[in-house]
Protein backbone atom coordinates (compact mmCIF):
# COMPACT_ATOMS: atom_id res chain seq x y z
CA UNK A 1 0.00 0.00 0.00
CA UNK A 2 0.99 3.63 -0.49
CA UNK A 3 0.08 6.49 1.82
CA UNK A 4 0.05 10.00 0.39
CA UNK A 5 0.31 12.44 3.28
CA UNK A 6 2.08 15.32 4.96
CA UNK A 7 4.05 15.00 8.13
CA UNK A 8 2.17 17.72 10.05
CA UNK A 9 -1.29 16.85 8.72
CA UNK A 10 -3.47 15.68 11.60
CA UNK A 11 -5.47 13.46 9.28
CA UNK A 12 -2.33 11.82 7.88
CA UNK A 13 -1.01 11.39 11.41
CA UNK A 14 -4.18 9.49 12.34
CA UNK A 15 -3.75 7.03 9.51
CA UNK A 16 -0.07 6.52 10.31
CA UNK A 17 -1.03 5.57 13.87
CA UNK A 18 -3.68 3.14 12.65
CA UNK A 19 -1.26 1.51 10.23
CA UNK A 20 1.33 1.14 12.99
CA UNK A 21 -1.18 -0.34 15.42
CA UNK A 22 -2.10 -2.90 12.78
CA UNK A 23 1.55 -3.64 12.05
CA UNK A 24 1.18 -2.71 8.37
CA UNK A 25 4.08 -1.45 6.28
CA UNK A 26 3.33 1.12 3.58
CA UNK A 27 5.28 3.27 1.18
CA UNK A 28 4.92 6.94 2.03
CA UNK A 29 4.72 9.73 -0.55
CA UNK A 30 5.01 13.25 0.82
CA UNK A 31 2.56 15.88 -0.40
CA UNK A 32 3.89 19.26 0.75
CA UNK A 33 0.74 21.11 1.76
CA UNK A 34 2.63 24.23 2.78
CA UNK A 35 4.04 24.51 -0.75
CA UNK A 36 0.66 23.83 -2.37
CA UNK A 37 1.53 20.43 -3.83
CA UNK A 38 -2.04 19.27 -3.20
CA UNK A 39 -3.23 21.63 -5.95
CA UNK A 40 -1.09 20.03 -8.66
CA UNK A 41 -2.76 18.09 -11.45
CA UNK A 42 -1.12 14.80 -10.48
CA UNK A 43 -2.47 14.91 -6.94
CA UNK A 44 -5.91 16.14 -7.99
CA UNK A 45 -6.10 13.00 -10.13
CA UNK A 46 -5.67 11.00 -6.90
CA UNK A 47 -8.10 13.04 -4.79
CA UNK A 48 -10.50 15.62 -6.18
CA UNK A 49 -10.75 17.17 -2.71
CA UNK A 50 -7.05 18.10 -2.88
CA UNK A 51 -6.57 16.87 0.67
CA UNK A 52 -4.43 14.29 2.42
CA UNK A 53 -4.35 11.48 3.28
CA UNK A 54 -4.93 9.17 0.37
CA UNK A 55 -4.32 5.46 0.88
CA UNK A 56 -3.79 3.47 -2.30
CA UNK A 57 -4.23 -0.25 -1.72
CA UNK A 58 -2.34 -3.03 -3.44
CA UNK A 59 -5.27 -3.63 -5.78
CA UNK A 60 -5.43 0.04 -6.81
CA UNK A 61 -8.27 1.19 -4.58
CA UNK A 62 -7.86 4.82 -3.54
CA UNK A 63 -9.29 5.72 -0.16
CA UNK A 64 -9.77 9.21 1.25
CA UNK A 65 -10.90 10.71 4.58
CA UNK A 66 -8.91 9.54 7.58
CA UNK A 67 -11.76 8.05 9.62
CA UNK A 68 -13.01 6.06 6.63
CA UNK A 69 -9.47 4.80 6.02
CA UNK A 70 -9.02 3.79 9.67
CA UNK A 71 -12.29 1.87 9.68
CA UNK A 72 -11.35 0.20 6.39
CA UNK A 73 -8.08 -0.95 7.97
CA UNK A 74 -9.93 -2.23 11.03
CA UNK A 75 -12.32 -4.25 8.88
CA UNK A 76 -9.73 -5.63 6.46
CA UNK A 77 -7.05 -6.31 9.08
CA UNK A 78 -8.96 -7.38 12.19
CA UNK A 79 -5.80 -8.04 14.18
CA UNK A 80 -5.37 -6.86 17.74
CA UNK A 81 -5.90 -4.16 18.68
CA UNK A 82 -9.31 -3.49 17.22
CA UNK A 83 -9.77 0.23 16.64
CA UNK A 84 -13.41 0.05 17.69
CA UNK A 85 -14.88 -1.82 20.69
CA UNK A 86 -16.82 -5.04 20.21
CA UNK A 87 -20.08 -3.71 21.67
CA UNK A 88 -22.40 -1.28 19.93
CA UNK A 89 -22.49 1.19 22.83
CA UNK A 90 -18.70 1.23 23.01
CA UNK A 91 -18.36 1.76 19.28
CA UNK A 92 -20.81 4.66 19.46
CA UNK A 93 -18.86 6.27 22.32
CA UNK A 94 -15.54 5.93 20.54
CA UNK A 95 -16.96 7.22 17.26
CA UNK A 96 -18.46 10.16 19.12
CA UNK A 97 -15.12 11.11 20.67
CA UNK A 98 -13.31 10.66 17.36
CA UNK A 99 -15.88 12.75 15.51
CA UNK A 100 -15.65 15.54 18.06
CA UNK A 101 -12.05 16.00 16.99
CA UNK A 102 -12.29 15.10 13.31
CA UNK A 103 -15.59 16.82 12.56
CA UNK A 104 -15.78 19.68 15.08
CA UNK A 105 -12.27 20.88 15.99
CA UNK A 106 -10.00 19.99 13.09
CA UNK A 107 -12.08 21.33 10.14
CA UNK A 108 -12.12 24.82 11.68
CA UNK A 109 -8.38 24.87 12.24
CA UNK A 110 -6.77 23.07 9.31
CA UNK A 111 -4.25 24.69 7.01
CA UNK A 112 -6.62 25.81 4.28
CA UNK A 113 -8.91 27.54 6.80
CA UNK A 114 -5.99 29.33 8.47
CA UNK A 115 -4.71 30.44 5.07
CA UNK A 116 -8.15 31.78 4.20
CA UNK A 117 -8.31 33.74 7.44
CA UNK A 118 -5.04 35.58 6.78
CA UNK A 119 -5.47 35.72 3.00
CA UNK A 120 -8.98 36.53 1.83
CA UNK A 121 -10.22 37.80 5.22
CA UNK A 122 -6.94 39.64 5.94
CA UNK A 123 -6.79 38.75 9.63
CA UNK A 124 -3.49 39.35 11.38
CA UNK A 125 -1.46 36.64 13.12
CA UNK A 126 -2.94 37.39 16.54
CA UNK A 127 -6.50 37.09 15.26
CA UNK A 128 -5.65 33.83 13.51
CA UNK A 129 -4.21 32.37 16.71
CA UNK A 130 -7.22 33.58 18.72
CA UNK A 131 -9.46 31.73 16.25
CA UNK A 132 -7.38 28.56 16.48
CA UNK A 133 -7.20 28.55 20.28
CA UNK A 134 -10.89 29.34 20.71
CA UNK A 135 -12.06 26.31 18.76
CA UNK A 136 -9.51 24.02 20.41
CA UNK A 137 -10.70 25.20 23.83
CA UNK A 138 -14.36 24.66 22.87
CA UNK A 139 -13.69 21.15 21.62
CA UNK A 140 -11.26 20.05 24.30
CA UNK A 141 -13.58 21.21 27.10
CA UNK A 142 -16.28 18.95 25.71
CA UNK A 143 -13.83 16.08 25.17
CA UNK A 144 -12.55 16.39 28.74
CA UNK A 145 -16.09 16.26 30.08
CA UNK A 146 -16.86 13.17 27.99
CA UNK A 147 -13.86 11.45 29.56
CA UNK A 148 -15.55 11.68 32.99
CA UNK A 149 -16.75 8.12 32.60
CA UNK A 150 -16.01 4.76 34.15
CA UNK A 151 -15.30 3.58 30.60
CA UNK A 152 -12.23 5.81 30.43
CA UNK A 153 -8.96 4.11 31.32
CA UNK A 154 -5.38 4.73 30.31
CA UNK A 155 -6.88 5.45 26.91
CA UNK A 156 -10.09 7.19 25.94
CA UNK A 157 -12.04 3.93 26.14
CA UNK A 158 -10.46 1.36 28.39
CA UNK A 159 -6.75 0.65 28.35
CA UNK A 160 -6.36 -0.18 24.66
CA UNK A 161 -5.99 2.51 21.98
CA UNK A 162 -9.03 3.07 19.80
CA UNK A 163 -10.08 5.43 17.04
CA UNK A 164 -10.70 8.08 19.71
CA UNK A 165 -7.03 8.07 20.76
CA UNK A 166 -5.95 8.02 17.12
CA UNK A 167 -7.81 11.31 16.65
CA UNK A 168 -6.91 12.87 20.00
CA UNK A 169 -3.12 12.58 19.87
CA UNK A 170 -2.58 14.50 16.59
CA UNK A 171 -4.93 17.26 17.78
CA UNK A 172 -2.99 17.60 21.02
CA UNK A 173 0.25 17.76 19.04
CA UNK A 174 -1.07 20.63 16.94
CA UNK A 175 -2.60 22.40 19.94
CA UNK A 176 0.82 22.44 21.57
CA UNK A 177 2.37 23.70 18.34
CA UNK A 178 0.02 26.69 18.49
CA UNK A 179 0.73 27.24 22.21
CA UNK A 180 -2.75 26.36 23.41
CA UNK A 181 -3.14 26.20 27.18
CA UNK A 182 -4.01 22.59 28.01
CA UNK A 183 -3.94 22.91 31.80
CA UNK A 184 -7.73 22.65 32.00
CA UNK A 185 -7.72 19.20 30.40
CA UNK A 186 -5.77 16.85 32.72
CA UNK A 187 -7.47 13.61 31.64
CA UNK A 188 -7.11 14.36 27.96
CA UNK A 189 -3.47 15.34 28.42
CA UNK A 190 -2.68 12.24 30.47
CA UNK A 191 -4.19 9.97 27.84
CA UNK A 192 -2.26 11.67 25.06
CA UNK A 193 0.94 11.30 27.08
CA UNK A 194 0.29 7.62 27.69
CA UNK A 195 -0.42 6.97 24.02
CA UNK A 196 2.79 8.71 22.97
CA UNK A 197 4.71 6.24 25.15
CA UNK A 198 3.48 3.48 22.82
CA UNK A 199 5.67 2.75 19.78
CA UNK A 200 2.78 2.89 17.29
CA UNK A 201 2.03 6.48 18.28
CA UNK A 202 5.59 7.65 18.78
CA UNK A 203 6.76 6.31 15.42
CA UNK A 204 3.84 8.04 13.69
CA UNK A 205 4.69 11.45 15.18
CA UNK A 206 5.54 14.28 12.78
CA UNK A 207 9.22 14.60 13.77
CA UNK A 208 9.74 10.92 12.90
CA UNK A 209 8.51 11.29 9.30
CA UNK A 210 10.88 11.39 6.31
CA UNK A 211 9.43 14.68 5.05
CA UNK A 212 9.75 16.47 8.41
CA UNK A 213 11.67 19.71 8.16
The secondary-structure element order is EHEHEEHHHHHHH
Distance between the termini: 24 Å
Question: What kind of sheet is the major sheet?
Answer: 4 strands, mixed
Q: Which stretches of 5+ consecutive residues score pLDDT under 50? A: none
How would you characterize this protein structure?
The chain has a 4-stranded mixed beta sheet, covered by helices on one side. Strand 1, helix 1 and strand 2 (about 25-30) form a beta-alpha-beta unit. The two termini are about 25 Å apart. The protein is an alpha+beta fold and about 210 residues long. The longest helix is centred in the middle third of the chain and has 22 residues, at about 90-110. The chain has helices at about 10-20, 40-45, 65-75, 90-110, 110-120, 125-145, 165-175, 185-195, 200; strands spanning about 1-5, 25-30, 55, 60-65. The protein has 9 helices and 4 strands. Helix 1 (about 10-20) crosses helix 7, helix 4 (about 90-110) packs parallel to helix 7 (about 165-175) and helix 7 packs across helix 8. It has 2 domains: about 1-80, Glutaredoxin; about 90-200, Glutathione S-transferase Yfyf (Class Pi), Chain A, domain 2 (Up-down Bundle), CATH 1.20.1050.
Amino acid sequence: MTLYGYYRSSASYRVRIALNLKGLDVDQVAVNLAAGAQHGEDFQALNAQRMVPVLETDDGLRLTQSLAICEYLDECYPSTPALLPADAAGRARVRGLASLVASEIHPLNNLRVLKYLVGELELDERAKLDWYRHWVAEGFAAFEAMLESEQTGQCCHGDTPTLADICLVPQVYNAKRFDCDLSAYPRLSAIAGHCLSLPAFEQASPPRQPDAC
